Amino acid sequence: DQQVKQNSPSLSVQEGRISILNCDYTNSMFDYFLWYKKYPAEGPTFLISISSIKDKNEDGRFTVFLNKSAKHLSLHIVPSQPGDSAVYFCAARTNAGGTSYGKLTFGQGTILTVHP
Amino acid sequence: KAGVTQTPRYLIKTRGQQVTLSCSPISGHRSVSWYQQTPGQGLQFLFEYFSETQRNKGNFPGRFSGRQFSNSRSEMNVSTLELGDSALYLCASSFMQGGQPQHFGDGTRLSIL
């Protein structure tokens, strides 16, 4: 039962263009969403997050959009740079209360390649 | 500011052995979570520790256990290793229990022969 899905295993983009990474979820109890970037031989690095009470959050070149009715979120990177080439994971936290907040459920990841 | 430190980076064991992995959180962070990453299952939550107590647990067998010390450092133990335990084990820390975002270390790559 995969509650967080990233249906595109890979994405290839030209430098300077927009990269759009997508994520779908099934659990309506998720209330907080995060995007992480991972380079080979390194741990995931936090990029940006969004609470379920918002539909958009921006941080520099990174913007996350949340569509709760569609249970869909996306990460936009504008403009894309070759250094953005990495695996991107979306993750979600459940609002089941109590001690559940510490558990993140991850998607399978999308490999982004930005060509010079 | 030092990040999350995991030791060792690489480990090779044989079936039936046990292993202990170590994690030092970011200074001031009191919550430590552990995740297993495999090609087939992706990143899966193992457990979270806060104030030396396990607060949350994922769907892993009892062979996987952990503990947290008074300085917030954490260890994870896997007993009776199986081939399927070969994975990257990641530790993440946050300031408080359930706090987000979690900040990850570079992981311990465990290979079972």
Structure description:
The complex is a heterodimer of chains A (about 120) and B (about 110). With about 120 residues, chain A is mainly β. Chain A contains no helices and eleven strands. In chain A, strands 2, 4, 5, 9, 10 and 11 form a six-stranded mixed sheet that branches. Chain A has a five-stranded antiparallel sheet with strand order 1-3-8-7-6, with no helix packed on it. The model of chain A has no long low-confidence stretch (mean pLDDT about 95). The N and C termini of chain B lie far apart (about 35 Å). Chain B has strands spanning about 5, 10-15, 20-25, 30-40, 40-50, 55, 65-70, 75-80, 85-95, 105, 110. Chain B is globular. In chain B, strands 2, 4, 5, 6, 9, 10 and 11 form a seven-stranded mixed sheet that branches. Chain B has a four-stranded antiparallel sheet with strand order 1-3-8-7, with no helix packed on it. With about 110 residues, chain B is mainly β. In chain B, about 0% of the residues lie in helices and about 55% in strands. At the A-B interface, strand 4, strand 5, strand 9 and strand 10 of A face strand 4, strand 5, strand 9 and strand 10 of B.
